[in-house]
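Researcher: Here's a chain I'd like modeled. Treat it as a single chain, no partners, no ligands.
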Amino acid sequence: MRDSTPSPLEKRLCFCTASFGDKYLKFAQLLAQDLQEFALQFPFLVVTDQPAHFRHFPNVIAVKHRCRGVQPYHERRYAIHYGLEIADSVMCIDSDVRICAPVPQKISFLPGLTARSCGSLSKHMAKRFRKTTSENIKKQAIIAQMADRVGISLDDPTLRFINEFLFVVTKDGGREHHFLDVWGDLAIYADTLGMFKHPTYAMTLAASKAGFKVYRDEMPGLKFFDNRVVLYELQRQGLEPDAVTQHYLQQQAAIEVGDRTLITRIRNRLAKVIARRLTTPASQTRVRLLSVIAPHTFTAYPQLADAQVQQSSMLLSQNPASCKQG
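Model: Modeled as a single isolated chain. Structure tokens:
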């Protein structure tokens, strides 16, 4: 990450996330509050099925979006696409991450993909799949099929595991669009094979296929909170959380746990059963059919949404309070 004066041709940074479902909408609203306080100079683009939840945030461009895949883990690629319409760099953040301090005014990134956390893919897979279980065997087989689909060897030592909770995509002469296109193809392919999560594998293979360089950067000056990172560090160092960290952990736990009344717990349990036995299989069938008869459903980015993002961006730059939701 370079903290230097941008040239006159450089555009602003854009933050983005994907938010679906009540829990993640609440998380994204907290993130929107953070960015309104600490990064109002940069727009925050959210793809969501409920854009009205962000109508009171002057810094948010909310784009109504229908989940294309079986589950929403890969949908962030649409947010990145729209972000690149209005900025040279798009910082993609999981909706449950928090920004804790002012973001530097002058901030720029190298062309390609810059991740807060990444490393060797082969080492990651050796650790991730060290236990020989049926689930791990299935996932490894799917990842191998994904690699074969794009002609990439998983033995390539240059392949980088990308921790997708916080990364930046920066324009690189059109390679960024090739990267997103290949990512989208692999995302749908993985869905048809039964692996609906873990977008990092599609991202890693897509970056390699597109010649899109991947960098690791601690991003000094960017103060963020991610409960997984924080809890790991506290445990590693044998420390107790300070008051600010405890506040963030409590806010996160309140959303994660939610209403614990008996009726709500029964309703949530039923929802999980329905999703596992009905909704998810039906969505996978939909994806399998459309991937054969109408593959453009997953690769095309709606031009109407592109126009709405451009218009909202112009309004936001002129007067933050006038930004409308797409």
